[in-house]
Design a protein that fits this description.
The chain is an alpha/beta fold. It folds into two domains: 118 residues, D-Maltodextrin-Binding Protein, domain 2 (3-Layer(aba) Sandwich), CATH 3.40.190.10; 112 residues, 3-Layer(aba) Sandwich (D-Maltodextrin-Binding Protein, domain 2), CATH 3.40.190. The chain has eight helices and eight strands. An eight-stranded mixed sheet has the order 3-2-4-1-5-8-6-7, with helices on both faces.
Protein backbone atom coordinates (compact mmCIF):
# COMPACT_ATOMS: atom_id res chain seq x y z
CA UNK A 1 0.00 0.00 0.00
CA UNK A 2 1.42 3.34 -1.04
CA UNK A 3 0.41 6.49 0.82
CA UNK A 4 0.11 9.70 -1.18
CA UNK A 5 -0.14 13.05 0.56
CA UNK A 6 -3.06 15.37 -0.03
CA UNK A 7 -4.30 18.02 2.38
CA UNK A 8 -7.60 17.24 3.99
CA UNK A 9 -10.25 19.22 5.75
CA UNK A 10 -10.23 19.05 9.53
CA UNK A 11 -12.21 16.16 10.94
CA UNK A 12 -12.78 14.84 14.44
CA UNK A 13 -14.47 17.58 16.41
CA UNK A 14 -15.98 17.88 19.88
CA UNK A 15 -19.10 19.99 20.39
CA UNK A 16 -21.26 20.36 23.50
CA UNK A 17 -24.96 20.40 22.64
CA UNK A 18 -26.71 20.35 26.01
CA UNK A 19 -26.07 20.99 29.69
CA UNK A 20 -27.46 17.49 30.24
CA UNK A 21 -24.01 16.15 29.41
CA UNK A 22 -22.76 17.33 32.79
CA UNK A 23 -25.46 15.70 34.86
CA UNK A 24 -26.27 12.50 33.01
CA UNK A 25 -24.79 9.17 34.08
CA UNK A 26 -24.68 8.23 30.41
CA UNK A 27 -23.96 10.72 27.63
CA UNK A 28 -25.02 9.95 24.06
CA UNK A 29 -22.28 10.84 21.60
CA UNK A 30 -22.76 11.00 17.83
CA UNK A 31 -19.55 10.33 15.92
CA UNK A 32 -18.07 9.50 12.53
CA UNK A 33 -14.77 8.35 14.05
CA UNK A 34 -13.44 5.01 12.89
CA UNK A 35 -14.58 2.26 15.27
CA UNK A 36 -11.07 1.34 16.40
CA UNK A 37 -10.52 4.88 17.68
CA UNK A 38 -13.59 4.99 19.92
CA UNK A 39 -12.22 2.83 22.74
CA UNK A 40 -9.26 5.19 23.27
CA UNK A 41 -11.49 8.25 23.49
CA UNK A 42 -13.98 6.45 25.73
CA UNK A 43 -11.24 5.33 28.12
CA UNK A 44 -9.68 8.79 28.35
CA UNK A 45 -13.03 10.55 28.87
CA UNK A 46 -14.31 8.14 31.50
CA UNK A 47 -11.01 8.29 33.38
CA UNK A 48 -11.51 12.04 33.82
CA UNK A 49 -15.28 11.67 34.30
CA UNK A 50 -15.80 8.44 36.27
CA UNK A 51 -19.48 9.19 36.90
CA UNK A 52 -20.31 9.50 33.19
CA UNK A 53 -20.19 6.73 30.59
CA UNK A 54 -20.35 7.19 26.81
CA UNK A 55 -23.01 5.68 24.59
CA UNK A 56 -21.72 5.86 21.03
CA UNK A 57 -23.93 6.28 17.95
CA UNK A 58 -21.67 5.91 14.92
CA UNK A 59 -22.05 6.17 11.16
CA UNK A 60 -20.39 7.92 8.23
CA UNK A 61 -20.11 11.72 8.18
CA UNK A 62 -22.96 12.26 5.73
CA UNK A 63 -25.34 9.99 7.60
CA UNK A 64 -24.52 11.50 11.01
CA UNK A 65 -24.92 15.04 9.66
CA UNK A 66 -28.31 14.20 8.12
CA UNK A 67 -29.39 12.50 11.36
CA UNK A 68 -28.49 15.53 13.47
CA UNK A 69 -30.35 17.86 11.11
CA UNK A 70 -33.40 15.59 11.14
CA UNK A 71 -33.38 15.55 14.95
CA UNK A 72 -32.96 19.31 15.27
CA UNK A 73 -36.28 19.81 17.05
CA UNK A 74 -36.03 16.58 19.02
CA UNK A 75 -32.32 16.05 19.75
CA UNK A 76 -31.18 12.58 20.82
CA UNK A 77 -27.48 13.37 21.32
CA UNK A 78 -25.77 15.53 23.93
CA UNK A 79 -22.42 15.63 22.14
CA UNK A 80 -20.98 15.46 18.64
CA UNK A 81 -17.44 14.12 18.85
CA UNK A 82 -15.72 13.33 15.58
CA UNK A 83 -17.32 14.94 12.52
CA UNK A 84 -16.06 17.02 9.58
CA UNK A 85 -15.57 20.76 10.06
CA UNK A 86 -17.88 21.45 7.10
CA UNK A 87 -20.64 19.47 8.81
CA UNK A 88 -20.17 21.28 12.12
CA UNK A 89 -20.33 24.65 10.37
CA UNK A 90 -23.64 23.64 8.80
CA UNK A 91 -25.00 22.33 12.11
CA UNK A 92 -24.07 25.58 13.82
CA UNK A 93 -25.77 27.61 11.07
CA UNK A 94 -28.92 25.51 11.51
CA UNK A 95 -28.87 26.02 15.29
CA UNK A 96 -28.25 22.37 16.11
CA UNK A 97 -25.10 22.92 18.17
CA UNK A 98 -24.46 25.53 20.83
CA UNK A 99 -21.40 27.79 21.26
CA UNK A 100 -19.04 26.84 24.07
CA UNK A 101 -15.39 27.18 25.07
CA UNK A 102 -13.57 24.08 26.35
CA UNK A 103 -10.68 24.12 28.77
CA UNK A 104 -7.40 24.77 26.94
CA UNK A 105 -9.06 26.27 23.85
CA UNK A 106 -6.59 29.17 23.94
CA UNK A 107 -3.75 26.70 23.34
CA UNK A 108 -5.21 25.36 20.09
CA UNK A 109 -4.02 26.45 16.66
CA UNK A 110 -6.36 29.00 15.12
CA UNK A 111 -6.93 26.69 12.13
CA UNK A 112 -8.59 24.17 14.45
CA UNK A 113 -11.12 26.59 15.90
CA UNK A 114 -14.48 27.67 14.51
CA UNK A 115 -13.61 30.97 12.87
CA UNK A 116 -17.08 32.49 13.14
CA UNK A 117 -18.47 34.45 16.08
CA UNK A 118 -19.33 32.43 19.19
CA UNK A 119 -17.18 29.35 18.38
CA UNK A 120 -19.13 26.09 18.60
CA UNK A 121 -16.59 23.48 17.45
CA UNK A 122 -12.91 22.69 17.87
CA UNK A 123 -10.76 20.39 15.75
CA UNK A 124 -8.31 17.83 17.04
CA UNK A 125 -7.29 15.86 13.94
CA UNK A 126 -6.50 16.42 10.29
CA UNK A 127 -6.17 13.67 7.71
CA UNK A 128 -4.19 12.98 4.56
CA UNK A 129 -5.54 11.03 1.63
CA UNK A 130 -3.81 7.86 0.48
CA UNK A 131 -3.62 5.43 -2.39
CA UNK A 132 -3.62 1.87 -1.02
CA UNK A 133 -2.07 -0.50 -3.57
CA UNK A 134 -2.04 -4.28 -3.15
CA UNK A 135 1.20 -5.37 -4.79
CA UNK A 136 0.18 -9.04 -5.08
CA UNK A 137 -3.17 -8.32 -6.73
CA UNK A 138 -1.62 -5.61 -8.87
CA UNK A 139 1.08 -7.96 -10.14
CA UNK A 140 -1.45 -10.71 -10.90
CA UNK A 141 -3.59 -8.24 -12.86
CA UNK A 142 -0.62 -6.68 -14.62
CA UNK A 143 -1.17 -3.30 -12.98
CA UNK A 144 1.81 -0.98 -12.45
CA UNK A 145 2.13 0.66 -9.04
CA UNK A 146 0.52 4.13 -9.24
CA UNK A 147 2.84 6.96 -8.24
CA UNK A 148 0.45 9.91 -8.57
CA UNK A 149 -3.24 10.78 -8.51
CA UNK A 150 -3.08 11.28 -12.28
CA UNK A 151 -1.95 7.67 -12.74
CA UNK A 152 -5.32 6.46 -11.45
CA UNK A 153 -7.07 7.83 -14.55
CA UNK A 154 -5.11 5.56 -16.91
CA UNK A 155 -7.26 2.95 -18.72
CA UNK A 156 -5.18 0.09 -17.30
CA UNK A 157 -6.80 0.63 -13.87
CA UNK A 158 -10.40 0.42 -15.10
CA UNK A 159 -12.50 -1.61 -12.65
CA UNK A 160 -9.67 -2.00 -10.14
CA UNK A 161 -10.24 1.02 -7.86
CA UNK A 162 -12.55 1.57 -4.87
CA UNK A 163 -13.17 4.91 -3.18
CA UNK A 164 -15.56 6.34 -0.55
CA UNK A 165 -18.75 7.95 -1.79
CA UNK A 166 -18.30 11.70 -1.17
CA UNK A 167 -22.07 12.09 -0.79
CA UNK A 168 -22.09 10.00 2.41
CA UNK A 169 -18.47 9.68 3.53
CA UNK A 170 -16.48 12.49 5.12
CA UNK A 171 -13.31 10.86 3.81
CA UNK A 172 -14.73 10.88 0.29
CA UNK A 173 -15.77 14.52 0.66
CA UNK A 174 -12.28 15.30 1.97
CA UNK A 175 -10.76 13.76 -1.15
CA UNK A 176 -12.96 15.80 -3.46
CA UNK A 177 -12.06 18.96 -1.52
CA UNK A 178 -8.38 18.08 -1.79
CA UNK A 179 -8.59 17.63 -5.55
CA UNK A 180 -10.41 20.94 -5.93
CA UNK A 181 -7.71 22.58 -3.84
CA UNK A 182 -4.96 21.00 -5.97
CA UNK A 183 -6.42 21.27 -9.48
CA UNK A 184 -8.94 24.08 -9.18
CA UNK A 185 -12.67 23.47 -9.52
CA UNK A 186 -12.73 22.94 -13.30
CA UNK A 187 -9.60 20.79 -13.31
CA UNK A 188 -10.84 18.73 -10.36
CA UNK A 189 -14.15 17.86 -12.01
CA UNK A 190 -12.36 16.93 -15.23
CA UNK A 191 -10.05 14.72 -13.20
CA UNK A 192 -12.93 13.07 -11.33
CA UNK A 193 -14.82 12.39 -14.56
CA UNK A 194 -11.79 10.44 -15.80
CA UNK A 195 -11.29 8.72 -12.44
CA UNK A 196 -14.94 7.68 -12.32
CA UNK A 197 -14.39 5.59 -15.46
CA UNK A 198 -11.98 3.41 -13.48
CA UNK A 199 -13.94 3.06 -10.22
CA UNK A 200 -15.18 -0.47 -9.54
CA UNK A 201 -17.48 0.75 -6.76
CA UNK A 202 -17.97 3.49 -4.17
CA UNK A 203 -18.15 2.57 -0.49
CA UNK A 204 -20.18 3.91 2.41
CA UNK A 205 -17.18 3.77 4.75
CA UNK A 206 -14.16 6.03 4.38
CA UNK A 207 -11.65 3.37 5.44
CA UNK A 208 -13.20 0.43 3.57
CA UNK A 209 -11.42 0.99 0.21
CA UNK A 210 -8.04 0.49 1.89
CA UNK A 211 -9.37 -2.52 3.79
CA UNK A 212 -10.65 -4.01 0.53
CA UNK A 213 -7.27 -3.44 -1.11
CA UNK A 214 -5.53 -5.13 1.83
CA UNK A 215 -7.89 -8.11 1.54
CA UNK A 216 -7.37 -8.37 -2.21
CA UNK A 217 -10.93 -7.46 -3.16
CA UNK A 218 -9.57 -4.62 -5.30
CA UNK A 219 -6.06 -3.71 -6.35
CA UNK A 220 -6.35 -0.07 -5.31
CA UNK A 221 -8.30 1.71 -2.58
CA UNK A 222 -8.48 5.47 -2.11
CA UNK A 223 -8.79 6.25 1.57
CA UNK A 224 -7.09 7.94 4.53
CA UNK A 225 -3.36 7.67 5.23
CA UNK A 226 -3.88 6.61 8.86
CA UNK A 227 -5.79 3.51 7.76
CA UNK A 228 -3.21 2.77 5.08
CA UNK A 229 -0.36 2.95 7.59
CA UNK A 230 -2.15 0.71 10.08
CA UNK A 231 -2.92 -1.96 7.49
CA UNK A 232 0.63 -1.82 6.17
CA UNK A 233 2.03 -2.33 9.67
CA UNK A 234 -0.33 -5.25 10.26
CA UNK A 235 0.78 -6.88 7.02
CA UNK A 236 4.43 -6.42 7.98
CA UNK A 237 3.91 -8.17 11.34
CA UNK A 238 2.23 -11.13 9.63
CA UNK A 239 5.21 -11.83 7.43
Amino acid sequence: MKARMMKASVAALFTLMSAQAFSAQEVTVYTAFETDLLAKYKTAFEKDNPDISIKWVRDSTGIMTAKLLAEKNNPRAEVVWGLAGSSLALLKEEGVIKPYSPKGADELRSQLIDGEQNPAWYGNLAFFNAICYNEIVGKQAGLPKPTSWEDLTKPVYQGHIAMPNPASSGTGYMQVSGWISSYGETGAWEYMDKLNNNIAHYTHSGSKPCVQAAMGEVAIGISMATRAAKLKNQARHLR
